[in-house]
Specification:
Number of strands: 4
Number of domains: 1
Helix content: 25-40%
Structural class: alpha+beta
Strand content: 35-45%
Radius of gyration: 20 Å
């Protein structure tokens, strides 16, 4: 199959690597998922990958969407992954600030 029959998406997976005094240690690994394009339509394309032997999963990808689930090139998929992770970091930093503020407020409360 040629590249035009494939779609790509990068994903990160957290693995437990072992037990230490304070719990499991973890490491992150980034994977490139390769999907087979089943069919092109005027609005997008259908993709699939084999989940288990005999099982197939399907998803539609809208061609003109700003954010797509999968991309036709590895470069676009990598750029999308980087943007998703930047957004995730931004959201988690905001949640951390909120939690720290709530903890500070709780410290000043009288029980």
């Amino acid at each position: 199959m040629c590249d035009s029959e494939k779609a790509y998406r990068y994903e990160d997976v957290i693995h437990a690597s072992g037990w230490e005094e304070y719990g499991y240690t973890h490491y992150v690994q980034v994977y490139l998922r390769v999907y087979t394009i089943l069919k092109h339509t005027p609005k997008g394309f259908w993709i699939t990958h084999q989940v288990r032997i005999g099982d197939r999963w399907k998803r539609f990808v809208l061609s003109d969407a700003r954010r797509k689930f999968a991309y036709l090139t590895k470069e676009e998929a990598l750029e999308s992954f980087k943007k998703r992770k930047e957004r995730q970091i931004s959201l988690l930093k905001t949640k951390l600030k909120h939690a720290e503020n709530a903890l500070r407020q709780a410290g000043g409360m009288i029980s």
